[in-house]
Amino acid sequence: MAYPLYTVGHSNHTADRLLELLRGNGVGVVVDVRSAPFSRYSPQFNREQLARHCAGRLRYVWMGDSLGGRPADRACYDEAGHVLYAPLSRTESFLSGIAALERRSEHYCLAVLCSEADPVACHRSLLITRVLRARGMPDGRIRHILADGTVRNDSELPIQVPMLEDAWRSPLSALHEPVLNPSSGA
After folding, report:
1. pLDDT greater than 60 at residue 162
2. What span, in angstroms and rounded, lies between the C-alpha atoms of 13 and 135?
3. Within a domain: residue 165?
4. Confidence at residue 179, expressed as pLDDT on a 0 to 100 scale
5. What is the pLDDT of residue 173?
6. What pLDDT digit, counting tens, does each position of 164-183 carry?
7. CATH code at 153?
8. How many domains, the chain?
9. Residue whose C-alpha is closest to residue 86's, from 164, 174, 159, 176
10. The three-state (H, E, C) secondary structure of the chain, written as one string
């Protein structure tokens, strides 16, 4: 049986509200895809605190090392610090994470968790679900839980201009300091 695969951003919810949103949609496994699962602003979503809060209610799995939006490999960034999704989507680590996500989604109703409230501005939609669709996951299986609790199928999200591979990147710089091009003399 193929279960729906949800995405959700913890935003500034309380931990109880997040679990309410997830359990209300039948989610049994939370897959945290934050590269750095910590928050100064919402410490209830720090990795250890969230795992403890989920205990006994939902299974918590961290996959930010393979599916995170801020990879360690500097080759996955442009000079301004934007993550280049095409090279990232071809890395062994990312593809292994996607395969694990696909396998888990066949056995469990899961939700891919990141911090951004709006899936349109987050790598969980811009990268992860785009790759899942390209690998054959039907649009109707991919659902986004919005901050207000409504759920949208992937195709119901605002249409974005199709991105050419060389322009497929994170909307914001992911680094504190830009990556300098060694040939620039800087």
Report:
1. no
2. 32
3. yes
4. 45
5. 82
6. 555 688 888 876 554 444 44
7. 3.40.50
8. 1
9. 164
10. CCCCEEEEECCCCCHHHHHHHHHCCCCCEEEECCCCCCCCCCHHHCHHHHHHHHCCCCEEEECHHHHCCCCCCHHHECCCCCEEHHHHHCCHHHHHHHHHHHHHHHHCCEEEEECCCCHHHCHHHHHHHHHHHHCCCCHHHEEEECCCCCEEEHHHCCCCCCCCHHHCECCCCCCCCCCCCHHHCC
Q: Kindly report the CA angle at 89 between 123 and 6, in degrees rounded to 5?
A: 40
Residue 39 is part of which domain span? 5-169
Assigned domain for 182 exists:
no
Q: Tell me, yes or no, whether 148 lies in a domain.
A: yes
- Nearest of 88, 37, 93 to residue 60 by alpha carbon: 37
CA dihedral 118, 133, 114, 94 (to 10 degrees): -140
Length of the chain: 186
The whole-number pLDDT of residue 174 equals 78
CA gap 22, 6 in Å, rounded: 9
Q: β-strand 142-145 against 151-153: which pairing, if any?
A: antiparallel
**What is the Cα–Cα distance from 103 to 108, expressed in whole angstroms?**
9
pLDDT band at 130 (very low <50, low <70, confident <90, very high): very high
- CA gap 186, 183 in Å, rounded: 8
Residue 31 lies in a domain: yes
